[in-house]
Specification:
132 residues; alpha+beta; 5-stranded antiparallel sheet; 5 helices; 31% helix; 19% strand
């Protein structure tokens, strides 16, 4: 007689993982120009950029490399703001304008005043973030 326990058949089933529903989100990619807003920590260091493009109903968050964990954690509220904006039915540019007015500012991070500007593409914004 073996001391090995038989595997419960429920644990041996091949699970088919399917996303059946989830929160609405903006598209995460566009090849068109993007508007973007710089976000900084209390010391003034840019910790990320919120970007938007209405044509593709796209918006997202781009982070410079090499940030400490505290800066990355502060970015969470900006990602939640993107989800909330989509849930409220806002166009990406309307959400960006709202954020530029300080709607998501906190003790951990804030929209840099007068930093709302354009980039020729999302890739150009990612290059800007990579340069720091």
């Amino acid at each position: 007689m073996s001391s090995e326990q038989p595997v419960n058949p429920r644990f041996a089933d091949d699970m088919q993982m399917r996303l059946v529903d989830g929160p609405a989100t903006y598209a995460r990619r566009t090849d068109k120009p993007v508007s973007h807003l710089s976000v900084a920590d209390p010391a003034g260091t840019v910790i990320g950029y919120v970007w938007a493009n209405d044509e593709d109903d796209a918006a997202g968050w781009v982070v410079p490399q090499g940030l400490p964990g505290s800066a990355l954690n502060a970015g969470g509220s900006w990602i939640r703001a993107l989800r909330d904006g989509k849930a409220r039915g806002l166009a990406p540019s309307d959400l960006l304008a709202e954020l530029a007015r300080g709607a998501n500012d906190s003790d951990l991070s804030h929209a840099v005043p007068d930093s709302l500007t354009q980039a020729p593409s999302l890739d150009a914004l990612k290059e800007l973030a990579a340069r720091g």
